[in-house]
Each structure stands twice: as C-alpha cells, then as structure tokens.
Amino acid sequence: MKVLMRDKDTVKLRVDNLNDLWHLSQIIEPGDIIKAKTERKIVLGDKQQRSRVKKITPTLSIEVERVEFHKYSDVLRVSGKIVEGPEDIPRGQYHTIDVKPGKIITLSKQVWLGLHFKRIKEAQRHPYRYLLLIMDRDEATFALLTPQGYQIISELRGEVEKKGYKEAKEVKFYSDIITKLNEYNERYSINKIIVASPAFWKEDLIKLIKNDELKSKIVLASCSHTGEQGIVEVLKRDELTQALKEDRVSREMRLVEELMAEIASEGNCAYGIAETRRAAEMGAIKLLILTDGLIKQKRQEGAYEPLHALLNLVQNSGGRIEIIESENPAGRKLDGLGGIAALLRFKLY
C-alpha cells in the first residue's frame, strides 16, 4: 500500500496487493466516505422505448454502509449511498465500489484513530512470508503464515512402515518434502521456513537438503504434535520469537497467552464489555485487545458507536489497541471471553 496524500481527515491510497485489501477491510468503517473511479451501469431509454444498458466509469464518493472481504478473494466490496459524483448520477442511490490491487482510493473519516494509521503503516511494510512445516517420519503439513493468519496449503503422507520400514521409502518421503519446500519457496517468495518435528526427524531432513539458499532460510523447532495442533504449538514457542517477530499470528497468540496468565493469577486485567469499559473510564488500560468478530457483530447489531467511543477513550488515555482476527486460535480464545479484554496499569477493585 502506498500513501499518496494525507491531510487532517483524508488519506489517498494506492492498493498494491491482497494484504492491502485485508488491512483496508479493518480500516474502512460505516460512516466513512470513500472516493474512487468505479464502474456503473446506466439504462438508456425509457419504458416506452427499447432500453439498453451502458457501462460508464465515473468517479464517485459513497458513504460507507457495508464492507465485505473474503479471505481468499481478490476484491474488497464497499457499499453505500452516493454522496458525490457527476450531475447525471442521482445522489442517494446505492453503489458498490470494487477495490482491487492497482486501485487508487480516497478515504475520509470524521475521526482517525491511532489504530487506523497503525494498520496503514503495517500495510506499507513488505509482506513478510513464512512457511511452516510440521512433520514426523510419515506425515508432513505445510502452512503459509501471512498477516491474515495461517493457511494449511498441503499435507503429505509417507509409506513408511511403523516397524522394520525400509530406508528407501523414508528417503523417498523426505525427497517429496524437499520438492514441496523448493516449490513453495519459489511460488510464495518465502523469507523464513520453520521446520518442526518430534524427535530427530527434522535433523534427518536437513541433512538431505542440497540447496544452500533454501537451507539458509530454515529455522528448526520442536513440537509434540503434528498437523494443525502442531502448528498452534509451534507458534507459541520461545525459540521462534525472533524468527517470527514480524508475524501477526504469533504476536496475537502471545498477547492472548499473556492475558490468560493475568486472568489465571487474578492480576491486572479486565475482560468483557462492561468490565473493560469501567477500566477505560478509570484510565487504567495499558493495552486493549479485541477481535474483528466483535467489531463486525456490533456493526451488524447497529451498536458500534459505544464500542467506538470506548476505543477513543482508551487512545486518549494513552493506551494501545490491538485488533486480532476471530478466525485465528488467539481470536477464538478471546471471543470466548466476550471478544474484548485489557491488560491494565493497575488492578481494579
């Protein structure tokens, strides 16, 4: 994402990739004004005449009512009523602007929060990609880590026998894994590869990798489980903190783990809307954590304004705000606590 212009309440942006679409889906909110060149169909002729449909590409501004983005799509759909445009297009009609990579948009808000600019800054960074391989002697799971979360992209099963297995079969399984590593490294422009396994399987694999460039990207880790359970386990490990320091999934998981530890020890924390609001009113919040699922829920219920006021209150008192995805393990755990919680400067009584 590239910022082309910024003033007090307006930012002009160019969308460069799919990660930018995801960040924008978290930034654009109901009530915002978005302006862009867009495609619109108009009907020529009246009811008495044979009418025909013509496509035009005007520049329109709409007041946002709905934002839709599916994780694996390449379009962010922003819908609302037209508030500005050519004279021949009536104000108040509904329109949807499709935002894709390459699109230039202008976004205006009545109030820009620090978390909005944080999202833009994060989107401006080069997307750092990690490949995670969880394996043992006859099972391998490959997952791609991106700012949106982790995505399992393939699984391999070996033909190794539990007892008396032949060395040739094991080498063939390892060879298949290495082929996949090379393929994904090239396809996704991988920065780091985390290889984790119980016992010594990962070390055996490394010995067979001849590609020095591929080998230089590999970070080894240990785990007790395979499959998705192993992915969640590895993302929590201290040995990966440095390797994954830029990865959003790992950071979110560690934040929620810290929160859960405070809750377990009855420490400086609050969770749930009512208790968190009380902490905010007292200026006690050091870090507010909430899920995008809670935000979407409140928007759908028409009850977003009180939540927005709470975010403003936290920001004005010097607190940090982190929004995490409900689809990720950390987000699911936080949603179990009401979708919102806080680490506090002091304990509430």
Q: Overview of this structure, please?
A:
The protein has 349 residues and is α+β, with helices and mostly antiparallel strands. It folds into three domains: 2-124, Roll (SH3 type barrels); 130-246, Nucleotidyltransferase, domain 5 (2-Layer Sandwich), CATH 3.30.420; 252-344, Ribosomal protein L30/S12 (60s Ribosomal Protein L30, Chain: A). The protein is 34% helix and 32% strand. The protein contains eleven helices and 18 strands. The protein has a seven-stranded antiparallel sheet. Strands 12-11-10-13-14 form a five-stranded mixed sheet, with helices on both faces. Strands 15-18-16-17 form a four-stranded mixed sheet, sandwiched between helices. The longest helix has 22 residues, at 167-188. The radius of gyration is 24 Å and the shape is flat.
